[in-house]
Backbone:
């Protein structure tokens, strides 16, 4: 009880009250007082939650007792009941919605007022500000029929609604239409509404789903169905350059946020009637539209089924991002590399689809997931195949060196400077010794400081608003490095090591793989500091085991390096063969059609009959 | 899952604790020895000289350009053995001494002749820090004197001086590549004996002091010393670095038995097949007072064959060389094919003579097979026991040699046709 209540008491009996007052004053001064409640709002636990908590406690108590005794093993009926309840509780949201449906009719009513009522309730009109409900009359065969239309403002294209739906319904229906149609529903559908994407729906559920996703629902009095027009027209980003996978040679367009635009971009590149775009919606509440793409007569059916199975089995309420989806459908969360390739490039998706892979797109995200992914593929850039093959191979070699640097250079530096002094040229070791002379830390600490600073600059550089970002990144790195050297906190040679490592990590074509390597780099630093090359070798060995044991959708992650495959996949593995040599699709994908092109794909190199020129070069 | 994390944590922590970064040494906690010198001690078995790099003076810590004088510090101490000496030295050298960058082991001639390196030559390759490709050199003066005389002028870092100087044999032919590993193997081999680079400290400070007492030109009946007629320390030069290398020290086992001068070393390289290229000066075969200089190169690997005739080895050596004309002082038109033959023949004879002199010197005087001819003999035995019993190294002194030199002059340089210098009084050879 709050003490000040006592103080406020009217003083009836002087002495006792005074004593009580003193007591209270002392209490107030010396003991703990509950501070006055000055919050204006408290987010209280919901009643059902409290009940759940209580039931959980009840559930746990008998468990504890059993554990202590450990004599009998009898299934507790109460416990079983609880788990059953919990299962129901988990799907609470869905249940609620279904209950809602149960109370009121699930199908469109013939009476317009019922429909209006129901829609108002569902969409909480007028609480929902962006919901537009427009009531009007239409004229059908000299008959005036009331109707209403419902759609979300901002998600729909107003011009389309005005010109293609409102105008014909209200004005053009007055025109003399030469038809004997008497049924209002088919008359409206066949003659009055000139909109191309029009669905006739009966169920409220599907109408609501359409309206939630930028549709416009039309209810007409006396008609037991509703017309749902697809008038999506929200603001979105156009097709722009991809942000992460830039190339010099090759198409410059990247995926956007709109699912249909994205599928169109792939279809535009592939132009194959066997390209299947399957629609799947994920998320109990969000119903995020996703598309699964594959080429019917190339992709292995089992692979397609497995992707479909995984997608359909996902039970979450909201999902918006392909990154979230990737985590839901990848094989193992602990493998130090992405097992699904995320790309922003339609041309890349198209190429991978023709290999026999499956792509998954999710609405509202420019990254498309392609699966299965193998490690060698993560190291390739689309540009490799666009430039001539010597150039492509040069790029690959440079990138390979960059990747090795990003992963191992700091570790090797630590190992060499701590254990293997005999390995480096005398001049260099003396230079390192001289540069480290005034540095007070061991080289491990030194390199950790710099790596950490570098990662910090990298992370902060993304968060810094707009124009300052890149500037601060460069200036920060330069000044920090320079100042750290001047302050004798790190040695100048180390700055080079860290800088080269950083540059190397940017050469990794796959952003997600870059992440994995950036983290593992620290592991190699510790191993190098602990046991020199022995440690690094052990690390590489374990790293290799880890990767070799991983699988992505049933395809070993390191294939075709390990395990080896009979044919295919080698032409474009580490080095790249000329494009006309890449005849076979990767065998590890077990595609339905194994050949890309015949043995001689360049017809012109073949000698014409009866001619013995020197054009008969081997392909 | 929790169990997995626990195991992972335990393993990683134990790795750190148990390995404990056991032999981790920071670069700046070590003192790098660049050269080791061994002399006969006054008070103890050995006098050890260590040249230690001073990184701050070499690396400069960013200021660039170090000071060659301060680039290294030299300490000398006496002790019973090498490693004992290192321990002792660490009492006054603040950083732990590390031999992993030692470039050269210098032994004084005195110690080498007494066979005093036996003990530590057996011990050296066992040490993990010692580089197998460290050079081994014998100093004609004391090793300490030699190391103290190394004051590089062109380099700051003495290690670089050693590396470059000791590899000059590739274009001079006056020393050989004698690394520690090679020396060790040959020392223990049944068919070959080691050599070491001959080093010394230059005798002369100024041009006036020059003399050629130390030159070997007299023995070879030459009027003037040619470029190969010197050994280290005797080169008539002043200025620059006083430490010199030239010639080879010939060993019998671990004992030094003799010296080879620069010319003999060149022939040694030719017979070994290690010869690269070098200039060779000779008197003009047609005009004895003028000189001819060729740039000689190895054209094929030498052919070496040993036959046993009457129980005595007969060794055939066939050397194939090619050469470019470098200098023709006489102006005689040697470029013409008929003259070319004369020059080639003269050079072949010249080399053949020198080679025979060297071969008989090693077999009859030094009695040590530094060329490894025994390798060819070894092939003629079926079992190792027979070969061991045979004792090639004892038999080498009875060898007779057939030397065949084939020299082809390929290119005349930029002058296609020589013609003599013309004087107004009509002089000028035709």
Residues:
């Amino acid at each position: 009880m709050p003490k000040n209540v006592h103080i406020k008491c009217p003083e009836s009996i002087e002495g006792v009250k005074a004593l009580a007052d003193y007591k209270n004053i002392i209490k107030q001064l010396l003991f703990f007082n509950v501070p006055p409640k000055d919050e204006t709002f408290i987010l209280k636990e919901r009643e059902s939650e409290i009940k759940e908590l209580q039931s959980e406690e009840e559930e746990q108590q008998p468990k504890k007792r059993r554990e202590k005794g450990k004599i009998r093993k009898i299934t507790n009926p109460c416990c079983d009941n609880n788990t059953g309840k919990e299962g129901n509780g988990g799907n609470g949201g869905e249940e609620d919605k279904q209950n809602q449906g149960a109370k009121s009719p699930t199908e469109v009513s013939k009476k317009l007022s019922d429909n209006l009522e129901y829609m108002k309730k569902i969409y909480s009109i007028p609480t929902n500000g962006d919901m537009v409900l427009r009531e009007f009359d239409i004229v059908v065969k000299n008959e005036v029929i009331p109707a209403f239309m419902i759609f979300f403002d901002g998600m729909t294209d107003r011009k389309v609604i005005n010109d293609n739906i409102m105008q014909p319904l209200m004005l053009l229906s007055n025109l003399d239409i030469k038809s004997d149609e008497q049924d209002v529903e088919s008359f409206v559908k066949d003659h009055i509404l000139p909109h191309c994407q029009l669905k006739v729906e009966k169920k409220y559920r599907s109408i609501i789903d359409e309206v939630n996703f930028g549709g416009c629902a039309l209810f007409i009095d006396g008609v037991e169905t509703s017309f749902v027009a697809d008038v999506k027209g929200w603001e979105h980003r156009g097709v722009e350059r991809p942000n992460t996978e830039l190339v010099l040679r090759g198409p410059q367009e990247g995926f956007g946020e709109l699912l249909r635009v994205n599928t169109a971009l792939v279809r535009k590149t592939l132009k194959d009637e066997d390209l299947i775009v399957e629609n799947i919606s994920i998320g109990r509440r969000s119903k995020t539209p996703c598309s699964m793409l594959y080429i019917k007569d190339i992709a292995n059916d089992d692979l397609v089924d497995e992707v479909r199975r995984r997608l359909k089995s996902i039970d979450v309420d909201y999902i918006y991002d392909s990154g979230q989806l990737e985590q839901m459908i990848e094989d193992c969360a602990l493998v130090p590399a992405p097992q699904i390739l995320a790309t922003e490039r339609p041309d890349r998706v198209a190429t991978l689809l023709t290999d026999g892979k499956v792509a998954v797109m999710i609405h509202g995200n420019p990254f498309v997931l392609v699966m299965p992914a193998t490690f060698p593929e993560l190291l390739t850039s689309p540009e490799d195949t666009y430039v001539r093959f010597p150039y492509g191979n040069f790029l690959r070699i440079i990138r390979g060196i960059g990747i090795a640097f990003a992963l191992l250079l700091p570790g090797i530096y630590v190992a060499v400077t701590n254990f293997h002094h005999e390995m480096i040229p005398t001049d260099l070791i003396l230079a390192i010794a001289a540069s480290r002379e005034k540095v007070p830390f061991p080289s491990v600490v030194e390199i950790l400081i710099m790596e950490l600073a570098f990662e910090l600059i990298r992370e902060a550089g993304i968060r810094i608003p707009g124009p300052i970002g890149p500037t601060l990144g460069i200036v920060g790195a330069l000044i920090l490095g320079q100042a750290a050297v001047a302050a004798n906190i790190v040695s100048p040679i180390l700055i080079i090591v860290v800088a080269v490592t950083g540059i190397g990590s940017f050469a990794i074509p796959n952003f997600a793989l870059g992440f994995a390597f950036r983290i593992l780099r620290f592991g190699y630093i510790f191993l190098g500091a602990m046991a020199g090359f022995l440690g690094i070798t052990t690390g590489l060995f374990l790293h290799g085991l880890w990767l070799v044991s991983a699988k992505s959708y049933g395809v070993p992650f390191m294939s075709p390096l390990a395990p080896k495959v009979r044919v295919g996949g080698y032409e474009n593995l580490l080095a790249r063969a000329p494009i006309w040599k890449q005849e076979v699709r990767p065998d590890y994908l077990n595609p339905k059609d194994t050949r890309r092109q015949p043995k001689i794909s360049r017809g012109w190199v073949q000698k014409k009959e009866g001619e013995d020129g020197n054009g008969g070069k081997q392909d | 899952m929790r169990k997995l994390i626990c195991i992972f944590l335990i393993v990683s922590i134990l790795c750190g604790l148990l390995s404990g970064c056991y032999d981790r040494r920071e670069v700046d906690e070590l003192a790098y020895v660049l050269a080791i010198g061994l002399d006969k001690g006054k008070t103890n078995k050995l006098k050890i000289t260590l040249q230690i790099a001073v990184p701050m003076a070499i690396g400069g810590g960013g200021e660039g350009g170090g000071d060659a004088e301060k680039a290294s510090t030299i300490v000398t101490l006496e002790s019973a053995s090498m490693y004992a000496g290192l321990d002792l030295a660490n009492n006054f050298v603040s950083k732990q001494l590390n031999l992993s960058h030692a470039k050269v082991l210098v032994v004084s001639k005195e110690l080498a002749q007494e066979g005093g390196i036996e003990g530590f030559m057996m011990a050296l390759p066992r040490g993990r820090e010692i580089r197998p490709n460290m050079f081994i050199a014998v100093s004609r003066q004391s090793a300490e004197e030699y190391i103290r005389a190394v004051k590089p002028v062109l380099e700051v870092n003495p290690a670089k001086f050693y590396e470059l100087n000791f590899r000059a044999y590739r274009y001079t032919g006056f020393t050989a590549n004698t690394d520690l590993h090679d020396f060790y193997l040959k020392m223990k081999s049944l068919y070959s004996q080691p050599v070491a680079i001959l080093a010394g400290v230059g005798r002369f400070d100024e041009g006036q002091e020059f003399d050629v007492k130390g030159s070997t030109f007299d023995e070879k009946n030459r009027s003037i010393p040619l470029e190969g007629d010197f050994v280290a320390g005797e080169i008539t030069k002043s200025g620059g670095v006083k430490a010199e290398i030239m010639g080879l020290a010939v060993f019998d086992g671990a004992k030094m038995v003799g010296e080879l001068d620069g010319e003999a070393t060149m022939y040694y390289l030719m017979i070994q097949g290690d010869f690269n290229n070098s200039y060779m000066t000779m008197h003009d075969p047609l005009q004895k007072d003028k000189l001819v200089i060729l740039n000689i190169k190895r054209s094929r690997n030498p052919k070496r064959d040993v036959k046993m005739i009457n129980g005595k080895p007969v060794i055939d050596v066939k050397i194939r060389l090619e050469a470019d004309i470098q200098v023709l002082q006489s102006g005689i038109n040697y470029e013409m094919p008929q003259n070319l033959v004369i020059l080639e023949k003269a050079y072949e004879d010249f080399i053949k003579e020198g080679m025979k002199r060297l071969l008989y010197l090693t077999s009859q005087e030094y009695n040590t097979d530094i060329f490894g001819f025994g390798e060819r003999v070894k092939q003629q035995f079926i079992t190792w026991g027979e070969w061991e019993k045979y004792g090639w190294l004892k038999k080498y002194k009875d060898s007779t040699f057939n030397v065949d030199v084939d020299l082809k002059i390929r290119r005349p340089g930029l002058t296609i046709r020589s013609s003599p210098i013309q004087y107004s009084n009509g002089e000028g050879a035709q």
User: Anything to note?
Assistant: Residues 183 and 545 of chain A are 71 Å apart (CA to CA). Confidence is low (pLDDT under 50) at residues 73-102, 615-619 of chain A. The longest strand of chain A covers residues 131-140. Residues 1-42 of chain A form one domain.
